[in-house]
Amino acid sequence: MIIDKFEKIINYKFKNESLLFEALTHSSSKTLKSNENKKNYERLEFLGDRVLGLVLAEYFFTLFPESNEGFLNDYFQNYANQDFLSQFAKKIRISDFIKTQKGDDLDNNKSILSDVIESLIGAIYLDSNIDECRKFIVNNMLKIVSETDYPLKHSKSLLQEFCLNKFKQLPKYSMVKKSGPDHMPVFTVSVNINEKNTMLAKGSNLKNAEENAASKLLALLNT
Fold this sequence. Notes:
This protein has nine helices and three strands, in the order H-H-H-H-H-H-H-H-E-E-E-H. By secondary structure, the protein is mainly alpha-helical.
């Protein structure tokens, strides 16, 4: 069975399989029409996001007992962001199991992939307890972390530091347009410094588009 295969991948056996089905169902799925409850992953995502945050905060708080809030927050952000969650989603091939409308390119939709990971965490929490969630997050999602591994900063932070040092100004972001269907939007964002060196980039949400634009501008400025 497909469900058995997925449970082996995530190393967790659901007692209530309906929670897993809900966690893997997108709002565009036609299967919702035959489902009296018409449930999708959005409510579980809301819960899973909070559970993930708690587990990560506790994990890094315990791992680095002498570190300050800023150091801990850098580590937290590296593992709670859309890029990391979507990378983990691809690693476990979760797009093969998500129920959505035909034609959706889930492998390149970081927003949906990261949302479904959070909904999966919410489903595990309701199916068992916080301890099982902690096992899933720490054993499956987190790589071995040591205090010597200084966390990588996001592109927006790096670009901000670069621009302040070189130009004594902050980069400016603006949204150019929003396109695509409501369930799979595409945001186009521009970023520039000194009203020159402008870069455009796209993303599945505004934050992701800004990160992509910042990354492209950084590459330009460093050439």
